[in-house]
Structures are given as structure tokens and as C-alpha cells.
Automatic annotation (TrEMBL):
Molecular-function annotations in GO: hydrolase activity
Keyword Hydrolase: yes
UniProt source species: Pseudoalteromonas holothuriae
Annotated Gene3D superfamilies: HIT-like
Top EC class of this enzyme: hydrolase
InterPro entries: Histidine_triad_CS, Histidine_triad_HIT, HIT-like, HIT-like_sf
Keyword Protein biosynthesis carried by entry: no
Stated name of the protein: Purine nucleoside phosphoramidase
Pfam families: DcpS_C
Motif (Histidine triad motif): 99-103
EC number: 3.9.1.-
Domain HIT: 6-115
Superkingdom, taxonomy of origin: Bacteria
Taxonomic classification: Bacteria, Pseudomonadati, Pseudomonadota, Gammaproteobacteria, Alteromonadales
Length: 123
């Protein structure tokens, strides 16, 4: 089992969060530092540290996170215009909380590529 994070405290209602969805497998709540007009984190209640820890036993949870994201996007009116639904992994992916979470970002056009590198020849 990986180390506990702040998200366990949110799951256990030990610290507050603006919860927008909950079921037996997942919880979705507003990001404390939103990067889009609508920025929700969808997390499994079971602690999975990173995408590297996804396996045949728990991969159904990842599908469920995307099903929840799609449901929320539809409910909040973002399905047609579109949105970003991403999971960051480890340092280069920009992960800061080691309890896997899906970012659902919506309400404005997203840029691509997701970063701009001033050095040449990295890709
Ligand atoms: P990561 O960088 O790991 O992909 O994303 C972690 C996200 O969790 C960040 O967007 C950050 O703003 C959010 N976050 C960190 N701590 C808290 C918290 O205590 N409450 C909420 N609602 N969001 C948090």
C-alpha cells in the first residue's frame, strides 16, 4: 500500500472539498486551484499512486473515472464543445499528489501541445 495523501482525508471527509459526485468507487470534487472555468478531480476511493500502478485487478477503476468524467461533462453542458480529461504521472507528467486522479478541465479552449519548450531538439 502506498502512502496516504490529502485525497484520503477528502474521501474520509476529514477535510472539506466541494464534492460534485460520489459513488462507491469514486469521488469527484472541484480543484482547489482551478486551471479552467470548470476543473474537477475524479479520483478512485481505492488508493492507486500513479498510472504505473494500474494493473488487471484495478484497471476497471480507470474506466470508471472516465465514465464519471463523461457524465459530469454532459451534466454541466461541456460535452458538445469538448474538454480535457487527463491523468498526470510522476514528475515529468506534472503529478504532485500521489493518489491517481483524473483532471476534468472544461469551459474554455485548451492549448495543444500542453507545454512550450524553448530548447530545440527534445522531441
Ligand atoms: P497533479 O498535479 O497531481 O496532477 O494534480 C493535483 C491537483 O490537486 C492540483 O491541481 C491541485 O490544485 C489539487 N489539490 C491539491 N490539494 C488539494 C486539496 O486539498 N483540495 C482540492 N480540492 N484540490 C487539491
Amino acid at each position: 500500500m502506498t502512502d496516504s495523501t490529502i485525497f484520503d482525508k477528502i474521501i474520509n471527509k476529514e477535510i472539506p472539498a466541494d464534492v460534485v459526485y460520489e459513488d462507491e468507487l469514486a469521488l469527484a470534487f472541484k480543484d482547489i486551484n482551478p486551471q479552467a472555468p470548470f476543473h474537477v478531480l475524479v479520483i478512485p476511493k481505492q488508493r492507486i499512486a500513479t498510472i504505473n500502478d494500474v494493473n488487471e485487478q484495478n484497471s476497471h477503476l480507470i474506466g470508471h473515472l472516465y465514465a464519471v468524467a463523461a457524465k459530469l461533462a454532459k451534466e454541466h453542458g461541456f460535452a458538445e464543445d469538448g474538454y480535457r480529461a487527463v491523468i498526470n504521472c510522476n514528475e515529468h507528467g506534472g503529478q504532485t499528489v500521489y493518489h491517481l486522479h483524473l483532471h476534468l478541465l472544461a469551459g474554455k479552449p485548451m492549448g495543444w501541445p500542453p507545454y512550450q519548450d524553448t530548447k530545440k531538439g527534445l522531441i
